[in-house]
């Protein structure tokens, strides 16, 4: 046990409202006392000269009881506090979790300053200290304080730094999670590192990053229920986008031959361990590419991100499991793998009645059943659970993929893949449908499904069809959830990978 953590001011992981109110009143009184004594509770600036991580990097191996002669001014949050007679200790934590000990002695600061310290400084306060960098008698890197100032007075106590926060608190009060838990901070860094890697990989392939509308007059680009809102300025119904696809394709029509976007999507659907109503999405389109090239690109994107975050293609998940994202990933046919797993030959020509009978036999229910929906649900029932390695599932039914080109050699399927990692769908890729005549036919089929009550069916989008009629080159496209990418690399659930997830 270090000097700064030997004892600490009482804090509980989940104090009652009465306790919070009482402690807040005490801290409010200390705030007033600070101001009355001529100090600021929330100063606008402080004479900071360096950071806690920089000091630790500069003096990594000081011997016990050493002096450096180097004076610094740093700031951090107090996460441990011990007050004794003539010598007080505080552990200051920087935003990255690194810490340094502040030693406040009567000899260095004087009687009045030491008395104010004991009276007014609490766990959780942001504090500025200046003084010489030393090593304590126990070898802990420290600052012998000559001057201190409260940088921000906290009115609520910190949770106990040695007690695990419950999931409810971690999600609803992520700021506390970031203060207390190293993994929470590391996840934010991992996400930023992964996204930077994605952008670097795209830059290496001459892609342009673009932005497309999130408020749309026509939702499309995916099969999903949208959030609906109203524009007072335009007096019209608007939708939060469910996908950027149709606008990114417009960009390709306009001559931007390699484009990608990383931004938010919104789907008014369920929330579980792999789904969030608001999520970050990557989509990319490449003129003169196809779904095979997009699969190659997707594998490269993910492997590069894993390397950037974990330093290896073999990643270690939060539960300690190792998972290998390296090598060449498997590619399997949806229909062939379903037939093999079920023991019954299922093809694009299998009738709807036969599929309904098979689904009923194994307890698979599908609202608004079509051939494609039944095939996909049966595939999930039989095949998905057995996938362990990263796997591209190739060649989907036509009726569930209205924006995808027909397969060049296989009747009744389209050139689409879904990538499964860790048991969930991480990404999808297409050889894009660029024929405006066939695209119109597909939209008409979707409108028929919508008329039968399918709320996820796409609408007829005349403006998008007009763009296609100006000529879109043969193209490949892909989409991948950023939150799910972090799930694949870290092994965490989706609410852990989103900094501030939507909660009920």
UniProtKB/TrEMBL annotation:
Domain (Aminoacyl-transfer RNA synthetases class-II family profile) ranges: 198-501
Region (Disordered): 1-24
Cofactor needs: Mg(2+)
Keywords noted in UniProt: Aminoacyl-tRNA synthetase, ATP-binding, Cytoplasm, Ligase, Magnesium, Metal-binding, Nucleotide-binding, Protein biosynthesis
Domain of life: Bacteria
Short name of one Pfam family: tRNA-synt_2
Binding site for Mg(2+) 1: 418, 425
Subunit relationships: Homodimer.
Matches recorded under PANTHER family: LYSINE--TRNA LIGASE, CHLOROPLASTIC_MITOCHONDRIAL, LYSYL-TRNA SYNTHETASE
Family classification: Belongs to the class-II aminoacyl-tRNA synthetase family.
Protein's name according to its UniProt entry: Lysine--tRNA ligase
């Amino acid at each position: 046990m270090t000097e700064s953590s030997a004892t600490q001011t009482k804090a509980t992981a989940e104090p009652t409202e009465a306790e919070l109110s009482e402690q807040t009143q005490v801290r409010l009184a200390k705030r007033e006392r600070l101001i009355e004594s001529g100090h600021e509770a929330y100063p606008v600036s402080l004479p900071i000269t360096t950071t806690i991580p920089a000091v630790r990097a500069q003096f990594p191996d000081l011997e016990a009881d050493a002096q450096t002669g180097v004076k610094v001014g740093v700031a951090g949050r107090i996460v441990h506090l011990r007050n004794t007679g003539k010598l007080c200790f505080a552990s200051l934590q920087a935003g990255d979790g690194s810490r340094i000990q502040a030693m406040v002695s009567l000899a260095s600061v004087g009687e009045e300053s030491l008395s104010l310290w004991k009276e007014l400084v609490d766990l959780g306060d942001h504090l500025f200290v200046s003084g010489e960098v030393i090593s304590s008698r126990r070898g802990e890197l420290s600052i012998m304080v000559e001057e201190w100032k409260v940088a921000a007075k906290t009115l609520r106590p910190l949770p106990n730094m040695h007690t695990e926060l419950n999931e409810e608190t971690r999600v609803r009060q992520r700021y506390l999670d970031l203060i207390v838990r190293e993994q929470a901070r590391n996840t934010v860094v991992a996400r930023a590192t992964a996204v930077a890697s994605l952008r670097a990989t795209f830059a290496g392939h001459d892609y342009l990053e673009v932005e497309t509308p999130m408020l749309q007059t026509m939702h499309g680009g995916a099969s999903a229920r949208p959030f609906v809102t109203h524009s007072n300025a335009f007096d019209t119904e608007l939708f939060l986008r469910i996908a950027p696809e149709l606008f990114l394709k417009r960009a390709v029509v306009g001559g931007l031959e390699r484009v990608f976007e990383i931004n938010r999507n919104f789907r008014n659907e369920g929330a579980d361990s792999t789904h969030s109503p608001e999520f970050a999405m990557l989509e990319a389109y490449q003129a003169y590419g196809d779904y095979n090239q997009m699969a190659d690109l997707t594998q490269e994107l993910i492997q590069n991100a894993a390397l950037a975050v974990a330093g290896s293609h073999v990643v270690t998940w939060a539960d300690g499991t190792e998972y290998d994202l390296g090598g060449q990933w498997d590619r399997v046919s949806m229909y062939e793998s379903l037939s093999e797993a079920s023991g019954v030959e299922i093809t694009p020509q299998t009738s709807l009645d036969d599929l309904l009978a098979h689904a009923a036999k194994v307890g698979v229910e599908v609202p608004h059943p079509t051939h494609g929906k039944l095939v996909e649900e049966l595939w999930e029932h039989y095949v998905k659970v057995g996938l362990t390695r990263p796997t591209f599932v190739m060649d989907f039914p036509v009726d569930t993929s209205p924006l995808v080109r027909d397969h060049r050699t296989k009747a009744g399927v389209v050139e689409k893949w879904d990538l499964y990692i860790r048991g969930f769908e991480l990404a999808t890729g297409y050889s894009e449908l660029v024929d405006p005549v066939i695209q119109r036919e597909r939209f008409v089929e979707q409108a028929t499904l919508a008329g039968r009550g399918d709320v996820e069916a796409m609408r007829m989008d005349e403006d998008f069809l007009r763009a296609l009629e100006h000529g879109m080159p043969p193209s490949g496209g892909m989409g991948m959830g950023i939150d799910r990418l972090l799930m694949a690399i870290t092994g965490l659930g989706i609410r852990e990978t989103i900094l501030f997830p939507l909660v009920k």
